Every structure is written in structure tokens, then in C-alpha cells.
Amino acid sequence: MLNPARFVLRVAAPVLALGRHTPFPVQRLLIEQSMARLFAEPVADGSFDCLRGRWLRLEVSDLGLAWNLTRGRLGLQLNARAPADLVIRGNWRDFLLLASRHEDPDTLFFRRRLTVEGDTELGLEIKNLIDSLDPDDLPPRLWRILRWLGAEVVTDERSPTAATASEISM
Hints:
The protein is an alpha+beta fold.
């Protein structure tokens, strides 16, 4: 029987992939408003200042989605085609593991599940920024959902069928 978290993860990939068909101005509006709410305090206290005048590109490879992010005078801002100083690339499940704190950035990087290209100093600043963000500042329901789904990804990866599938693909 399929548990609820596994069901959500199975449905999530095709649903999230539809985002690439969403016009960028709509993506920008939704993401910038979400970031403004979620990261209001860290932005106000200067935690994101390492992005002033510099661009971070986040690429979710398996979904075909990417955004360029900077710290502008109005807060965190997105652009579709800004020249990136740093690119962080990975699959959506790896970003979920990162967001849910089930994996740390170093582990994902050394396992080559996240790739980092460009300004290494900025990359280190972003890693430190991720480490410094307090998940208790997130809305409690969002944090519980992230932890719940991240735990299921970890369980899924440790299951014998996941090991067999990864051995076959090699």
C-alpha cells in the first residue's frame, strides 16, 4: 500500500514539471512574494546581502526549471536571464533534502547530487547562509511538510528497490 508521503512524491514530479510552462512573470510574482514572506527577517538583518550586485542561478534539472536570484533594493528578486555569478544545479528531490535539513549542502555536493559552478567565494557564502537560516522561522505547517516529505525521500533512497534501481542504471 502506498503511504501518503510516497504518493505526494510520486505526483509531485509531473505536477512540478508543469511549472516550466508557466510564464516567467507569473513564476517571478509567486516566488518573489513567497520569498518576501518566508525570508523577511533574514533579508532585513542582512543575511542575503552577499547577493547584492551578484546573481545566483538555481537550476532544477529534472524539472527543466531555473531562476536567477539577487538581493535588490526591494528584497530578493528574480530575473530570467541575468548573467549568473554562481550556478547551483540539482534535482528537485535533492533540493527537498536540502530544504528539509535531511542532507547538508556539503554532502549533496560531494555525492555529486548538487553541482556548483562559478564564484567559489559566493558559493561558500551561500552555503553558510543556508546553514544559518533557522527552520523555526518558517511557518510551522510548511516546516512539518518539508520534514515529512524529506524523510520519505530518505526512506525511499534507503529501500532495497531504490538500491537495485540505482545499480541497474549504472
